[in-house]
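Please decode residue identities from the backbone states below.
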């Protein structure tokens, strides 16, 4: 059975490429472009995985979203994976700190890629997104 992935992604190009990547692996994807929309989707859908851009713009922090999810007894079991694609030099500098913070707040994984590699992304997510039958 395919996994339902809710993806909180800011960059439209990345959102399209990641969606294509996950769809090609047989998964269903719902993209949210903002924190409020992502929260509403998580409350309205039973999902198997939340994939979030680590660098959100406008409307809150990904860590606020992660805290909110992990503090809810019914949602905390959903794997939460943080993703950074084409990180800027300042983002690369903070990469280790972001990884530690993500782990401490309950993220299942932190993935950082210089450029989106669809095969590698699907491999990284294979533990969390079940393969289609």
């Amino acid at each position: 059975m395919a996994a339902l992935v809710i993806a909180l992604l800011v960059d439209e190009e990345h959102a399209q490429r990641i969606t294509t990547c996950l769809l090609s692996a047989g998964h269903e994807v719902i993209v949210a472009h903002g924190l409020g929309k992502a929260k509403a989707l998580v409350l309205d859908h039973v999902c198997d995985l939340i994939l979030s851009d680590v660098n959100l713009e406008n409307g809150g922090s990904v860590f606020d979203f992660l805290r909110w999810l992990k503090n809810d007894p019914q949602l905390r079991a959903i794997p939460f994976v943080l993703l950074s694609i084409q990180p800027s030099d300042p983002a690369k500098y903070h990469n280790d700190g972001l990884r530690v913070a993500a782990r401490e707040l309950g993220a299942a994984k932190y993935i950082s890629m210089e450029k989106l590699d669809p095969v590698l992304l699907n491999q990284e997510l294979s533990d969390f997104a079940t393969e289609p039958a």
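Observation: The longest strand covers residues 80-85.
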